[in-house]
Write a structure and sequence with these properties.
The chain is of the alpha+beta class and 146 residues long. It has 2 domains: 27 residues; 89 residues, Nucleic acid-binding proteins (OB fold (Dihydrolipoamide Acetyltransferase, E2P), Beta Barrel), CATH 2.40.50.140. 29% of the residues lie in helices and 28% in strands. The protein has a 5-stranded mixed β-barrel with strand order 1-2-3-5-4. The chain is elongated, with a radius of gyration of 26 Å. The N and C termini lie far apart (93 Å).
Length: 146
């Protein structure tokens, strides 16, 4: 009988200790609750921007920029962030038409009424990451003799 009482007391102590740790964690999350809006999203999630990872190319002569994702091509709206991104990308390019992997946050705009342009455009608001390109010999076809 004494063993059962001791086991019950130990069980109660262990369970109550686990609750204390959870309450400490809930205290820290409640302090983070002030950063989370009423809809359950942080301010960064509620700003209407999305993060997109793809390959970026800007051709200054044509004043044209594209972002190619795994499923879609986006025309890029030319603004100050585009010039900042291009400056970072130029350092990694070995060929003027090489596409560099980037991750950006921006607003996607439907391109309605224009037939000769991309279906969607992206307005870059934030540059998250610029990566080194994978060196694949078959990636670029070059014409000419060596």
């Amino acid at each position: 009988m004494k063993k059962i009482i001791v086991i019950c007391m130990m069980f109660t102590v262990i369970v109550s200790c686990k609750d204390e740790k959870k309450s400490d964690a809930s205290d820290t999350t409640s302090s983070n609750q002030s950063e989370i809006g009423e809809d359950g999203k942080t301010a960064k999630q509620s700003d209407g921007l999305i993060a997109i990872h793809g390959k970026f190319l800007f051709v200054e002569q044509d004043n044209a920029a594209v972002l190619q994702t795994a499923t879609q091509m986006y025309g890029v709206i030319i603004n100050d962030k585009l010039t900042d991104l291009n400056a970072q990308v130029e350092q990694l390019k070995t060929d003027p038409y090489q596409m560099i992997p980037v991750t950006v946050r921006g607003r996607i705009i439907k391109n309605e009424g224009v037939k000769d342009e991309w279906e969607n455009k992206i307005e870059i608001k934030e540059i998250l990451k610029v990566s080194k390109p994978e060196l694949v010999e078959n990636d670029v076809i070059k014409l000419g003799t060596k």
